[in-house]
Amino acid sequence: MVPVTSVGADSPVDGIVATVPIVLSLLVAVWALVAAVRHRPPDRVQFVGLAVLEVALLVLSVLALVAVGGGDRPGEPGAFFGYLVTLVCLPPLAWVLARMEPTRWGSAIVCAVCLVAPVVVVRLQQTWEVLGG
Amino acid sequence: MVETGSARQRTNSGPGRLLIAVYLLFAIAATSRAGLQLATKFDEAPVAYLLSGVAALIYIVAAVGLARAGHTGRRVALACCSVELVGVVAVGILSLVDKDLFPDETVWSQFGSGYGYIPLVLPVLGLIWLWRTRRAPA
Q1: Residues near A17 by Cβ (< 8 Å), separated by ≥ 6?
Q2: Which stretches are transmembrane (chain B) (predicted)?
């Protein structure tokens, strides 16, 4: 397969706005994994990490919505907005479940959710850029 | 509510809560995907999309069953995990043998390879978890 040539309009979910949440999410995942392996419940770092991640994801969402408001359209609008809504719900989901489970398994939940978030960000990018593909 | 001995771990705490979390993620993923496919392009691959819908439903019910714990919850979860395991193996084989049946991907095609094979592992973990938390000490 030849790499897809870049679409005329720049994707609003590419570059630094996507890289920051992906890296952040993976860092929290690793931290939570270490905590889970060491039998530690979710600590302050994990909750703060989830909060910062949520902010990064909200920034990403706002930029995407601004682009849509400005006339740009994702390649697969339905899937794109589905992923967008799912994405911003992930950190709160992890937060609530981790609060309910103050054991090592709470940390494991944070780790699992933070591994899923980067995948969703990538899917988000794919559903924007499907044009012409 | 029935008082259960503290010796017995309920299905909705500890590792069970992690399992519920993953089930929730799959419920969300499968439901939104199936909903979208059924709503926008049902005619292209009715079997695949209906199957996605059924899979989505099973993930939701399994998550609820595990979360509710108790006798009924366990039986519901047991049924769901069993159906899932059979489903993912059957669809996995069918999707390899007869590609025309599933022209579009489903959660269970190729044994869930599109989802990191988690759909194949999840029901097994669910059954193991139900087994390990079985019967309260008398």
Answers
A1: A59, A60, A63
A2: 18-36, 48-69, 76-94, 114-131
pLDDT per position as a tens digit, B97-119? 887 777 777 888 888 888 888 99
Catalogue the E-assigned strands of chain A: none
ipTM above 0.90, yes or no: no
pLDDT attached to residue B7: 43
B52 with B33: CB under 8 angstroms? yes
Residues 67-86 of A with CB under 8 A from B: 78-79, 82, 86
State how far the Cα of A131 lies from the Cα of A11, in Å rounded to an integer.
11
* pLDDT the model gives residue A9: 56
Does residue A52 belong to the interface with chain B, where contact is any CB pair within 8 Å? no
Number of Cβ within a 10 Å radius of residue B121: 14
